[in-house]
4-coumarate--CoA ligase (Ananas comosus), 528 residues
Amino acid sequence: MAAEAAPPPQSPPDVDPRSGFCAATRTFHSLRPTVPLPPPSLPLSFPSFAFSFLPSSPLPSHPALIDAANGDAISYPELLSQIRSLAAALRSSGAVSKGDVAFILSPLPSHPALIDAANGTSSTAHKLPSNLPTILLDSPRFRSFLQISESYPTVEAVVIRQSDSAAILYSSGTTGRVKGVLLTHRNLIAATAPLAAAASAAAAAPAARMLLTVPLFHAYGFAFCLKAAAVGETAVIQTERFDAKRTLKAVARFRLTHLALAPPAVLALVKFREAGCAGAASVGDVSSLAVVTCSGAPIGTDLIRRFLASFPNARLTQGYGLTETTTGVFRFHGEEASQRIGSVGRLVWGCEAKIVDSGTGIALPPGARGELWIRGPLIMQGYIGDERSTSEILNSEGWFKTGDLCYIDDDGFLFILDRLKELIKYKGYQVPPAELEHLLQTHPEITEAAVIPYPDENAGQVPIAFVVRQPNSTLNEAQVTEFVSQQVAPYKKIRRAIFVESIPKNASGKTLRKDLVQVAFSRLQSKL
């Protein structure tokens, strides 16, 4: 595993005040305001750090968490009380000790206090190995753990260091196998500190009410849930499969101000509003919606404009991060999103970035396209039990190689083009699938689309598309290929279109390209 990250570096004096680029080191530096972090040597756990931002007397009176399905809510006093009770019960019973790894297996979030526990529900516990100690979340025993009890024996306080492991999250595995990403308390502290500082600066503003439609085991949902607790927001948890109408009804019911979505969910909301569905009026008043955060995959500029037309009172803001970076390493502040449609924002405080030519390894200036590298306190410690994969992606100087093809413009805004390993190699040309997907989704008869490479004897690879048609559409393959060919260079043309009922995605909304490759090989037997 990598060594503990050093304190964020100080920017050299010759940094461009517009882009943050230092020509001497060919490195981009953050231009965000400085956010103080506790000294790395100070013993401190992430929960202690996060809850230190909440007012001690009184605690926020609004709910900490709401279940979108039934409206059940947990207040901040209840949340903190139950977390303390659960921690005391688990430690005094010997169920969890320092250094243990706890695994939560549940179809629902069940309870936020479970960040510190190893559990399953009665419907899922059979999936766990029989030799693991298990606590059922729906059992009387677990419910008793949430109640403060004088019977818990006093146990010695555990010293938690910021370099200690805090969480293991798994990369999505959309193109290959999943890997366990080890994050420390320091990683989580560094991720939360800027958000808490921003919330403190806007203390007079009403607390945000955010709907989380992304799973909490994914870095996207995990980070937003932790952020909500640290800054005193209300997190509304929606566990059912995403549905546009259900989501908008939740906005109206709970007067939600913020949504956290993946690009396919944004597309579904836009198409629902554009279609003028019979149920559109029945969802209720959604005027409370102020900000929609979209992350997890690139989103096209056409879809952004369509969203703004469909939801004129809301702001669409993007961010960029990976499981390996704990949270977003590029994001927007305030109204910045309106300045750079299609960008994912500027570099967060404490981090450095490079755009590197993947062939030569040379760092590139603003405007040049290459692989994005990131360094700073948000970078993971490594892949658990996989030193080889760790060394391939995290070098000795602490630079994390994202694998994303990007560029940073003259004002420091990052633009994501595609995953390097997903680029289609056509006769030496590089074709970004995301570009073609965004184009296909502008067709009025296409609901969703995904593009993958397919082997070709002459070209090496050619783009083929998977298309979901609108209900009752008679759109055919020739019309799809012609629609694309009229708008792109010849080497980017779609060579085949396969119509499907749905595009396979993982729980966070990312397209499972590896599944589509298998479908393509089974359907396309003839030479393209």
User: Anything to note?
Assistant: The longest strand covers residues 446-456. Confidence is low (pLDDT under 50) at residues 1-6, 110-118. The chain has three domains: 21-45+168-419, 63-159, 423-523.
